[in-house]
Amino acid sequence: MMRSLSWRRVPLWAAPLLCALTSAHAGTVTVEFLHPETYTDIHVEGDAKVQILQPLARSLEQLGSRLPDGRTLAIQITDIDLAGDWRPAYSRAFDIREMTPATWPRIKLRYQLKDPAGQDLRSGEAELKDMAYQGGMGTLVDSTPLRYEKKMLRDWFTRSFVHPQP
Questions:
Q1: Residues 28-62: b if buried by 16+ CB within 10 A, e if exposed
Q2: Do 80 and 52 contact (CB within 8 A), yes or no?
Q3: pLDDT per position as a tens digit, 11-20
Q4: Do the beta carbons of residue 103 and residue 84 sit within 8 Å?
Q5: How many CB atoms lie within 10 A of CB 151?
């Protein structure tokens, strides 16, 4: 039977090695939302900035740790259409977001990747959409807010910057 390694048993000499492994990729991502008041759909009960924009920005910023050291990625979000549609509830007490196969998430953005010296490596525009957002095992077990949008952004980031295809 295999036992899990307890952190209390990790030798002191291994600490610098573990730190080096986690900081081997240490790029940065900055996110800017251009005119969010014109976005297709960021409707929520409450503050859209707190419930949608900030969590999406944090998710993208965390992905920066997967970039090579010193690289910077500037992302400008130009439109968001969240998964599902906002529908009035029958009781009129609160509205609900109805998820259907035809209401997939979409995000339009511009990006610019720079090397540590500030030279442009790549830039462009992307229109992300996930028409199969309700499929797969991940959707059955994940109930976090914005799970479809975050997965779509994570997949795009991985395809575009971590494992780019020629």
A1: ebebebeeeeebebbebeeebeeebbeebbebbee
A2: yes
A3: 544 444 444 4
A4: yes
A5: 19
Nearest to 148 by CA among 64, 65, 55, 67: 55
Burial grade of 74 (CB within 10 A; 0-12, 13-18, 19 or more): middle
The residue behind tokens 């494992």 is 163
Pairing label, strands 106-114, 120-129: antiparallel
Q: What is the identity of the amino acid at 77?
A: I
Dihedral sign for Cα 42, 46, 48, 54, please: negative
With cut-offs at 50, 70 and 90, classify the pLDDT of residue 158. Answer: very high
